[in-house]
Amino acid sequence: MKRNVFIIPDFSGVFVNSQQQQQQQQILSPKENECMENLLTNLGTISKVNFKNSTTIEYDFCNTQNINNQPIVFIGCYENQINNLNLGQSTSYMIGDDFLCLDNLNDLSLNSTIYNNSILYSSLPQSLLFLNLYGNNLQFSKLQPSLKYFQVTLVNQTIETTIKFSYLKNLVQFVLDFPSWINLSFGSHLIYFENDLDESEIWESNNNIITNNIPSLRFIKGDFDMILLPNFLQSSWSNISTIENITFLTIHSNSLIQFPSFEFSQIRSDDLKLIWFDSFISNVPTIIDLSSIGNSFESLSFSKCGKNFQYGGGLFPFILPKNSNFKFFEFSGGYIETFDLSLFKNVEIIILENNDMSGSFPLVFNTTLFGKLKSINIGYNKITGTIDDSFCSVDLFVKNNLMNGTIPSCFTCFFGLPSIGDKFSGNNFSNFYPSSTSTIIPNFIPGNVKNFTNYLEYEFFIFGENLGGRWIPVTIVVDDFGTYYASQVLIINKLIRVVSYSKPADVITMKYSPVDPNYIFKLSTRNINPILDKVNWQSSTSNLVIDGSFFTYNKSIVNITIGNISCSVTSSSFNQISCIVSNNIDSFFNDILSYITIGNLTTQFTLNPGVINKILNCSAYNDCNGNGYCLSDIGKCQCDSNHQGDACELPLKECLNDCNNFGQCNNQTGICLCKTTPYGWTGNDCSIPLHTISAVSPSDTNGGYASIYGWFGNIHTDQQVFIGNKQCIPNYNRSESEINCESPPGTGLKSVSVIQNSINVTSKDIYQYYSNDKQCPNHCTSTSNGICNTTTGYCNCIGRWSGYDCSLYSNPSGGSNGGNGGLPGSNTTIDSNTGNTNITNQQTNYQILITKLIEIDFNGNQINEYLLLNKWSIISNNSKTVYTFIQSIQNDQCNITYTIEEINKDRDITFAGINFKLTSGSVKMTVSIENYQYSSNLNTLQLQMKSSVNEIQTNDENDCNDDQIEINSTPNQDNSLNYIAIKKDAKVLNGRFIDRIESDGISTFMQTVLISKSNDSIIVGMNLPHCTKKCLLDPDFSVLVSPEFVDDCNGNEKKSWFLPVTITIPVVGCALIIALLYVIYKKRFVEARFKKQIKLLNRK
To answer: Is the distance from CB of 46 to CB of 40 less than 8 angstroms?
Structure first.
C-alpha cells in the first residue's frame, strides 16, 4: 500500500553514540540511580542491567542496551544524565508517575507495558519531547502540553476506542499506525476519532492515522494521512468537505469505498494543495465538480481507482479545477471509454494509465490550446494513431497502446539512453530504434547575476532543439572542475534554465549520459571566436573536416568560405565541423584566404588544397585586427600596406625623405627621430644640422682673428656669431667644423653664440680674451724663487723651489735619508681596485678622488649624473709607475679612461698649448672622456674631484708640528679656481688648475669652480665644453714642506721648513705631485753640516 510517511525525529541514535562514547565516564546522581533501580525492579527487568560492582550491587545503568530480547531494556545517557529510555515489562506492575524522577528524560518508548493512562499522560517529565507506545488495547487521554511528538503502534485494539483531538492539540506530529507484519483484513482495530476542537483551538500538526471514520477536520492545519480500516463508516464521508485548513490530504484503503461525489464537490479551500486517493472506488452517480475547489489547489491523484470507478458508462467523471496553480492530475486503473485531450487544457501533467481507453491520438498538438500541458502519460490503453512532430513540446509516455507510424526524432535521438525508448514500447512504430544524436542542438545564452545577501546567483540558459524533457537530471550540467549546476527544464526540448553560485567556467558540459560520448555536449559560456587546430582537405575530394574548439552544434549558423567559394556544412559539434566545397579549387593555389563564421563570431585562416593543414594561430581569433590576414601555415600575420606588428595592430607610416639617413623613422607616427650624437640633426626630415660648439681660439683684448670650433653641418642659413653680446664679423671662413671671424675688442671671459638655420647655440664662459701681460700668483714670491710667464700667468720656479708661486721647497727623492736635508719623506699609493690616490707623510694622509660626472643644461640644471667612485677597472700597470683605469657609462657607449703616472725625475711638458714643469716625485693624472651621448646639443659636462686630509695615529714624536687643518681656495680674475691649498701639521696640499682642455683635439678654455668645502676636504668641478668625440684633461700634483716645519721636536734648535702639497688640475688632465718629504737625521751625525746649510739658505 502506497502511503505518505510523516517522520518523527528520532534522536536515540545520537544518545546511543554519546552513551557508547562516554559509557565509562557516566556517573548518575543518587536520585536517578534510585529512580531507575525502583522502576526496573517493578517492571521485572532489573536483572538485565549490568553491574559496576557486583559485591556492592552497584548498577551500571548507562551501559545497558538490551534491545534484541524481550522485554527490552535500553538506557541512554548523556553528560551523566538519563535522556533516552526504551523499556519492556515482565510483571503486572502498572506504570504511573514513575518517570517524574528523571528530570532530563527526552525520549521515552514503552513496549507492551501496563500503564494508568490518566496518571501517565499527565505525569511525564517536562523535558520529555518524544513518546512512543507499542502494544495492544492501548489507552488514551489528554497529553501534557510539553510533549510534541507522539507515535503509537497498535498490534490490535479490540476495545473500541475513541481518540479526541483535544488530547493531541499540543503535538506537532502524531502517528497512529500498525506493525508492518499485520494484515488489516484479519486484524481488529476499533479506532475512532472525534474532533472536539473549536475555533479557539487551532491545531497545527502533521498526522498519520488509521481510523474507522473520517472525523471532522475543521480547526486543523497541516497534512493529514488516513488509512481507512475495513469496517470504515461510509457515512462519515460527509466530513470530507471540512478540510478547508488541510494542506495535503491522503486517503488509503484496500476496501471498495462509496465515493462521496456530492460532498467531494463541496470542498472549498484556499489552503488545500493536494488530494491523493489510494483506494478502490465504486461507481459514482454524479460528476465530480472541482472547478471551484480553491486557488491554491495543485494536485489531484486517483492512483488505483478500479474498474468500478466510472461515470455514465465510461464518461470522464471530473470537471477539473480551473485555477491557474493546478498542475497535476492522475486517474489510473479505472475506466474511461474514449481519450479526449481537450479535457486537460488547464493542467501541466496528466497520467491516464490503464483505463481501457480507446480512440485516436490527436493529429497535432495545438500549443495555443494546450500551452500549459507539459507531460502526457496514456500508457497501457488502446489508443491508436501516430505522433506528430508538434508533440515534441511535451513529455510522452505511450507504452503498450496500438499506435504506429514514425516516432519524432526529438524522442528517438534519446533512445540510446536507458529507459527512454521504453516509454514508446509495445506499439507498432516503424522506427523503434535510436536515431542520430546530431539532432540534439544545444546553445548557450547568458542570463542575469542576482545579488543576494550572502551569495551571488549566476543564471544562464541553454536553448535549441531536442534538448530533452522533464526527465533530464537536475545535475545535467557540469564543468571541467567537477562542479555541477542546478538545471530546470522551462520549455521541453527548447529551453533549460541553469543556476550556479560561482562564476561559470569558460566551458560547461551537458551530460545526458556519464559515459556515452554521443550524449555529452560541450558549450562555451563566453563569446569566443572559433579556434582551429587542423583542417583535413584530402586530395581529390571536396570534403573538409575542421578540428578545433568553440564551434557549435547548430550547423545552420555556421558559414564557411574558401576563397570566394562556399563550403556547405554537413555536420557540426563543439570540436569538429564537416563541410563540402561547392566548386572545384585548383590544387596549385597556396594560402587560400578562408573564413569560418559562427553566429557573429568570425575566424580567418588560410588553406592549401589537398593536404592536412595544421592551423597556427596568429593572434586572438586570427583576424590580425582587421588590418591584414593570418598565414595559418606559419602563424604570422600578413599586414596591409598601412599596418605592421605581429598582429597588424600598429600603423605603418613613411617618414619624409626617409629622414635623409640622419635619423630613425618612427614608422608608427611617420615622424623622424633625428640623431643627436655624435652630430645632431633636426627638421621634419633631419636635414637641418643641430650644431655644437666644442672649442674656441680667442683673440687678444684688442680683438681680431678668432676661430670657433665644433660641428656646424653644411647648411649655414643666416649664420651669425656673437662674442658676448657683440657680433663677430665679418666671417672669413665657415665649414662643418670651424668658423673664422673678426672678434670685437674685449676683456675677460665671454660666452659664444652661433646662430644658423634659425637655431641658436650658446657655449657659456668659453671665450677668454688673452693678454700678453698676465700677472703670476704672488709674483712668484721673489726673483730668486721663480720667473713669471706673462703670456700664461704661470710661474717657472728656480732650482728646487716649487708650488704655484714658487714659495715651497720640493723633496725630489721623496725619501727619508740624508739627501733630504732632514725633511720627512712621503709615500704615494695607488689602489689598483678603486683608482684612489693616497699620499701619506708622517701622521698626515691626503686622498685624491674622481667622484662623479654630471651633464648640465644651458641653465645650469643637472640632467644626468654618473657616480664614478670605486667603479674603476685597471687595464694596465707599467713598471708600477703608470696605472690606467677605465669605466663605461651610458650602456657602454661612453668610456672614461683615467691614467696615473708617478714622475721619477723633473721634466718639461706641454699640454693644450701650455708649457709647465713636472718635478720629480710628482704624480701626473690624465682623464679622457670619449663619445659621451648628450641629451641636447646645448648641454655640457662637469667632472668633479675631491681632495681630503686626515690624521694617522702613530707613535712618532712630532707633536711640535701639530696644527689645525686650513683650506684656501681663491678664484682668479676670470672667476676660475686655479689653485687650492690644504694645510695640516706644517704640510700643505696645494692645488693648481690649468684653465685649458683639449676638446676634440683643440685647446680651449676651461673654468674650474668650487663645489663645496668642509673642515677637512674640498670638492671642485671642472666645467667642460661640449666635446663631441673626446675631452682630455691632464693634472699634476706635488708634495712640499712648509717653512714652519720643525725637523726635531726634541732638540734645542727648531728647524722650520715649508712642505706644500700642490694639486694642479688642468682643463684636460690632472697630475698628482707626490710630496717630497724630508726625514730628520739624528743630530749627532748631521748637526754641523745641517747648520751650515741653513745659514747659507737664509743668506739667499
So the answer is: yes
Q: Which residue in this structure is represented by grid cell 640632467? A: 863
Q: How many CB atoms lie within 10 A of CB 558?
A: 22
Are 945 and 851 within 8 A, CB to CB?
yes
Which string of DSSP letters, residue by residue, matches 570-636? EEE-SSEEEEEESS---TT--SEEEEEEETTEEEEEEE-TTSEEEPPP-SGGG-GGGSEEEETTTTE
Q: Residue 438, class by beta-carbon neighbours within 10 Å (0-12 exposed, 13-18 middle, 19+ buried)? A: middle
State the average pLDDT over residues 655-665.
92
Longest dimension (CA), the chain: 165
pLDDT in tens, 301-313: 999 888 989 898 8
Dump pLDDT digits (tens) for 992-1051: 778 889 999 999 988 888 899 888 888 999 999 999 899 998 876 666 665 565 666 665
Name the nearest CA neighbour of 992 among 1071, 885, 914: 1071
DSSP annotation of 721 reads E
Higher pLDDT, 738 or 183: 738
Write down the mean pLDDT value for the chain: 85
β strands within 538-575, DSSP E: 543-549, 558-562, 565-572
The helix/strand/coil state of 186 is: coil
CB 238 within 8 A of CB 264: no
Burial of 281 (0-12, 13-18, 19+ CB in 10 A): buried
* Amino acid of residue 80: N
**Residue 1016, all three cell numbers:** 677637512
By 3-state DSSP, what share of the chain in percent is helix, strand and coil, each rounded to 5? 10, 40, 50
Q: Is the pLDDT of residue 878 over 60?
A: yes
Residue 415 C-alpha cell reads as 533512445
CA-CA distance, 786 to 1073, in Å (whole number)?
18
- Asked if residue 469 lies in contact with residue 395, where contact means CB atoms within 8 angstroms, the answer is yes
